[in-house]
Write a structure and sequence with these properties.
The chain is mainly alpha-helical. A three-stranded parallel β-sheet has the order 1-2-3. The protein has a two-stranded parallel sheet with strand order 4-5. Helix 8 links the parallel strand 4 and strand 5. The longest helix has 29 residues. It binds tryptophanyl-5'AMP. Tryptophanyl-5'AMP binds next to strand 1, helix 1 and helix 7.
């Protein structure tokens, strides 16, 4: 069966290491396989489901396209587009809302978390968030979705929508699965929870310099450097996870041995880690600088991507409308 991939990132700010390791690295791996059709979008419509600034949204959605390109996503091999430019996403999500119950949507942990975070913004858009995401995926009949583990409940909704639509209307939606990377859960720098754009102090941006990375790492909690691996505080475990992700498993094992022996000198560890992270980000930052001086190229990528995406999306939407008696 032909494999099709779709993924997206909201336009809420500069990308961080969590987005890069959990999502973009998976996108890059899948783009490598020329037998797979890859669609990568900026989920700018999803961005309006929580409070946002209009001017920042305008800027950020373009920035995500630039980050995609800087990381190595290639418009010759992948369709890169802005979700809002392909109206079919919104139309299909409304059709999908006819097969899902309110109760199912209200029970999603991701919905509950967002309501807790923004108690004054428990909107219909937020409740419908996962249906819009199901629409993003199923419009392209994607069967693989490279995203971090936090998105699993949303992928489950997409599978459920696919099943319900296929049963009720005889559509042929695949049941999509998550494509996981080694960095499917990148922890926060603050010792608990995940790295997140909305939590200042939790993240390292893809555009940070080595000095900025070191500053951010310095603020990460540690202990006195010695002890038993079993009782190691979460914050230290997280730092060692970063060591593993950027300097390899052997380096992590070295530090673990130090922890149980002479002790870790966190000042040195953090300097070394900052250098490894900066080395990985350097080519991305160089490419970003090149892209920034060529706005016309970015405009072209965005315009071409929308046309390519829409050609596929409109076919699927027509099929669905036909089967639902709306053709
Ligand atoms: P968003 O914008 O919150 O995050 C974008 C991607 O980054 C991943 N991610 C992480 N991965 C590992 N560790 C972390 N700390 C971390 N933080 C973020 C997310 O899992 C995600 O892959 N709902 C999506 C956007 C979306 C989408 C889609 C994704 C809209 N439509 C269709 C796939 C397919 C979201 O909010 O991502």
């Amino acid at each position: 069966m032909k494999q099709t991939v779709l993924s997206g990132i909201r336009a809420t700010g500069r990308l961080h290491l969590g987005n890069y390791l959990g999502a973009v690295k998976g996108m890059l791996a899948l783009q490598e396989d020329s037998t797979i059709d890859t669609f990568f979008m900026v989920a700018d419509v999803h961005t309006i489901t929580t409070p946002y600034d209009i001017d920042e949204l305008k800027l950020n959605r373009r920035e995500v396209i630039i980050d995609y390109l800087a990381a190595g996503l290639d418009p010759e091999r992948s369709t890169l587009f802005l979700q809002s430019m392909v109206g079919e996403h919104l139309e299909l999500s409304f059709l999908f809302s006819s097969v899902m119950s309110i109760a199912r949507m209200q029970h999603l942990p991701t919905f509950k978390d967002k309501v807790k975070q923004y108690p004054d913004h428990a909107t219909m858009a937020l409740l419908n968030y996962p249906l819009l995401m199901a629409s993003d995926i199923l419009l392209y009949k994607a069967n693989l979705v490279p995203v971090g583990i936090d998105q699993e409940p949303h992928i489950e909704i997409a599978r459920q929508v696919a099943r319900k639509m296929n049963e009720a209307y005889g559509t042929d939606f695949p049941e999509p699965t998550r494509f996981a990377t080694k960095g499917e859960y990148v922890p926060s720098l603050q010792g608990s929870g995940k790295m997140s754009k909305s939590v200042a102090g939790s993240f390292i941006s893809l555009t940070d310099s080595e000095a900025e990375i070191l500053e951010r790492l310095k603020a990460a909690p540690t202990d006195d450097g010695k002890g038993n691996l079993q009782t190691m505080p979460q914050g230290v475990k997280n730092i060692l996870q970063f060591v593993e992700l950027f300097s390899g498993a052997e380096k992590r094992a070295e530090y673990e041995a130090q922890y149980e022996g002479a002790g870790i000198r966190y000042g040195d560890l953090k300097k070394e880690l900052a250098a490894s992270i900066a080395a990985e980000l350097k080519p991305l930052q160089a490419k970003r600088a090149e892209l920034m001086v060529n706005p016309k190229y970015i405009d072209d990528v965005i315009a071409t991507g929308a046309t390519k995406a829409q050609a596929v999306a409109s076919r699927t939407l027509d099929e669905v409308k036909e089967k639902m008696g709306l053709g």
